[in-house]
Amino acid sequence: MEIDLLKNYPKSKRDTKGRSEIMTEEVRAIARQYGKEFFDGDRLYGYGGFNYNARFWQPVIPDFVQHFGLTSESRFLDVGCAKGFTLFDLMEGVPGITVAGIDISEYAIENAKEEVKPFLTVGDAKALPYEDNEFDAVISINTVHNLERDECAKALQEIMRVTKDSGKAFITVDAYRNDEEKERMMQWALTAKTIMHVDDWKQFFKDVGYTGDYYWFIP
What we know:
Low-confidence stretches: none
Structural class: alpha/beta
Strand content: 15-25%
Largest sheet: 7 strands, parallel
C-alpha cells in the first residue's frame, strides 16, 4: 500500500530551478559513479558531505519498528544502504536485531559507519546475494529508480524474492502527481533513470509483481 514511513524524516527546501541551471550530463555521469564526488565531494555532484547525524533516521526508526513489527529476532535488509546510517540507528533502536545492507558504491561501504561495516556488502540490487525469504523486512530508499526501467523491475522482483512476507517491504521512488511536480522532479533528479507518474508506478508494481509498500520522493 501507499504509506509514508518517512513522515518524520526532516524535510528541507530544495532549489530545483537553481539546480537545473547547473545540471549537465557530465555532472550526472560523475554522480552516477557513486564515488567520493557523489557522497563527499562538491554539492553539485550529490550530497556535498554525507555524514552521520542522529536527527535524520532516529525519528523514523519507531515507524519502521511498528510497521514491520520488528523485534530482536528480526532480520532486516537495506538495499542501497550507502554508509549504513539507517541500519546503525535501527540497531540502536532494536538491540539484537540482525541487519544487512547492500550498496553498489564501494566508496560508501569503505567509508561506512564502523559499527555496521561488518554487515554491509558491495553489490547489485538486480542480483541480491541472499537466499529466498531470508529477511523479515526489506527497505530500499530512493534507490531502485536509479536503474533503467527493465533493471528496476528486476530489482523489485529481487526484493520480493528475499522478503519472507510479500507485504514486509518498503521502497521510495522519484515520482510526480501533476505537471508542476513533474517539472520540479526533472529539474532536481540527478541520478534517477526511471521517473514516472504515481499512477504509472502503481501499474508498474503490479506488472512486475512488487506487492510491498511504497511512497514517493517529490522535491
